[in-house]
Structures are given as structure tokens and as C-alpha cells.
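Deviation from plan, reported transparently: adenosine-5'-diphosphate complex.
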Amino acid sequence: KEGGLIVSFGEMLIDFVPTVSGVSLAEAPGFLKAPGGAPANVAIAVSRLGGKSAFVGKLGDDEFGHMLAGILKENGVSGEGINFDKGARTALAFKSVHLHVVLYNCAKVFHYGSISLIVEPCRSAHLKAMEVAKDAGALLSYDPNLRLPLWPSPEEAREQIMSIWDKAEVIKLLLVTLGDKGCNYYTKHFHGTIGAFAVKAVDTTGAGDSFVGALLTKLVDDHSVLEDEGKLRELLRFSCACGAITTTKKGAIPALPSVSEVHTFLDA
Ligand code: ADP
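Because the crystal trials were delayed, the predicted structure below was used instead.
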């Protein structure tokens, strides 16, 4: 695999997705076991697109945990940062609090994707990991996985995001993905919108992770997109294509595209 290492930190879990849509969980006749968890999705998205990625996080030392580790391995993601916890069960949505300093030191990009930055003890673990990676010179990437419905209105969401942006001198690039409306980008020098591709979406799970994976795969070896709007727009178009493709199949990981699938999609 080519390029710098992208280390993705956080949880990996199993989503139980009802086999029939439009029913409550209690009424579902059956469930599909869908491996997921945003940081793990991003690591696999990178690997499918030809990048080098590692996952760091905690899994239960049970059948599900080893199944998930197997999925990472099959997809070419380094799993040396996996910590199997004897006292934990994988089916639950674990928040990782374990550190893997060696991997953070090798990271060219350190990515974490979780709302858990706001709750302890995950918050301290995340911040520590970030510090190690940053000291080693990595580019930091954070996806809070915030959901628009959590806010009273899109205007308020926008206002909140822009107030973070105004305060954060160190942020080089801020992206807000908007589902079938595409994405907005902001840098200190320019901002704009990239429209989404028109597709027949069947399951949008993992679209954001696919988008982030694509972005990081290219960004890891070429930071010039942060200064060059034309290049950035081209990269975001590629990332939006990855997001769009991911919505056309059920589940997150099974729907993450390879480079050739993206090129076929873009050439169509
Ligand atoms: P998240 O999965 O984090 O909620 P989004 O739903 O905003 O993220 O999706 C990320 C990107 O994937 C979007 O910016 C868009 O380019 C693409 N995408 C998501 N949903 C659709 C859709 N229904 N149609 C086309 N593109 C989509």
C-alpha cells in the first residue's frame, strides 16, 4: 500500500439492522448483523481506496470481537492497535479508552470520529492520543458525527458551527456534510459548496465515513489542497462520489467503494 499511515481511533461495533424497513425494533422479524462504528468505517474506506490505515480501539474478547478484527484484517487495515478486553462484550457500543502510542507516533493523519469527545473518560483518552499524534507531526482530523436533528434548526446549527470556526485559529479546513445537498467547505481564505451526486439512496449509513475516508486518503500525502480551492473542490467531488456510492447499498462497510468503482461512477 502507498502513502502515509492514517490512524483511526475509537469504536467498532455491530449494528443490528432490521431486515424489514418501516417497522419498530420490537416488531422487526429479523436483524442483519452489520459491522460498523464510524472510526472503523473510515479505516476500511481508506484501505479500499488504496491508502494505508490502522484502527486503534477496544473490542470484547468474544466471538463478535474476533469477527470484527477479522473484518479489519480482510480489508487490509492494520489491527495491531486492537485491544481485546476480556471483561467486555462486543455487541455493546464501546468507547475506547486505550492508547497505542507507537501507532500514534507513526501516523501522518490521526482521525477520530465520535461524539464521545464530550464525555469522560473517553474525552481524556482522545485528547491524550491527539496530543501524541500532533507532537509526532500528524495532521488531526475530527468528525464529531453531530446530527442536524439534534439542533432545533439548521440555522442554529450553522451559527454554532461558525462560532467554533471563528474561535479556532488552528483549524485549517472545516467541512459540513449535508446528505443529499452535498457539502460546505470553509478555510481561512475561501469557502463554497459542492453539490451531491443524484443517486437512488437505499441506506445512507456510512456515507459520511466514506466521504471522510476518501478525503483523508488523498490529503495524507498532499496538503496543498488546503491552500488551493480548485484542488480542494476536485477532492471534495471525489469524496462526495464516495459518499453517494455508499448510499446505494445496504450497510456501511459492505457499501464502501474501491477506487475503480469510484472511477466507473465518475465516468458514467
Ligand atoms: P453522515 O453519514 O455523516 O450523516 P452525510 O449524510 O452528510 O454524512 O453524507 C456524506 C456525503 O455523502 C454527503 O456530503 C454527500 O456528498 C453524500 N451523500 C449522502 N447522502 C446522499 C444522498 N442521499 N444522495 C447523494 N449523495 C449523498
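Confidence is low (pLDDT under 50) at residues 92-97. We consider this an acceptable substitute for the interim report.
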